[in-house]
Design brief:
With about 200 residues, the chain is mainly α. It is about 90% helix and about 0% strand. The two termini are about 135 Å apart.
Length: about 200
């Protein structure tokens, strides 16, 4: 730019040597053009300086953004690693929970089977208890009848006198003996009727 301005100034100086009024008016025009070119050159240099400052600022901002991007990438890598670690930890805990759940499930099934077996035994024992209670009740009733029969026999035996005993042993007719044997057979049948059957 400066070289062009310098060349223009030389051209103006050379043309100033021209003759007369025409030369003065051409020189004035050239001077005016030179002043305009210098002014325009200053404006352009100011614009270039402003643009250079903006470029420097943009490059500085770009470097700052690159640094921020690098920091952000490092943070993203760290967050991704933390996320992977958290997912792995979650999966490990989930596997442990599933394993514990399976153990509890197996223990529950075993406990349920034991409970069912105990309930079946309890029901069996309750049925046996009911049967035993009925059997005991029956035994108590039959025992009471046997005691009654035993007392009856004792009372008859104690009530027997000497005459009854001689009649029983009289050999001639044996009628009394048959009566006593029939009576004893009746008592034996009653005792057998009240015998507990298992």
């Amino acid at each position: 730019m400066r070289a062009r301005t310098f060349c223009l100034a030389i051209a103006l100086a050379a043309s100033s040597t021209l003759t007369g009024a025409r030369a003065d008016s051409d020189a004035d025009r050239l001077r005016e053009a030179l002043r305009g070119a210098i002014t325009q050159q200053r404006v352009l240099e100011d614009q270039r300086a402003a643009l250079q400052a903006k470029l420097t600022e943009a490059e500085s901002e770009r470097a700052g953004l690159k640094e921020q991007i690098g920091v952000a990438k490092a943070e993203v890598k760290q967050i991704a690693k933390q996320h992977r670690d958290a997912v792995e930890e979650f999966n490990r805990r989930l596997a442990e929970r599933d394993e514990t759940f399976e153990k509890w499930k197996a223990a529950y099934e075993e406990a349920a089977n034991v409970a069912r077996a105990k309930d079946a035994e309890r029901a069996k024992f309750e049925a046996q208890g009911v049967a035993y209670k009925a059997s005991v009740k029956s035994c108590v009733a039959k025992n009471a009848e046997l005691v009654k029969l035993g007392r009856e026999l004792l009372e008859r035996y104690q009530a027997a006198n000497f005459v009854d005993l001689t009649v029983v042993s009289e050999p001639l007719t044996g009628v009394r003996r048959v009566e006593i044997q029939n009576l004893l057979q009746d008592y034996n049948d009653k005792i057998l009727d009240h015998k507990v059957k298992q």
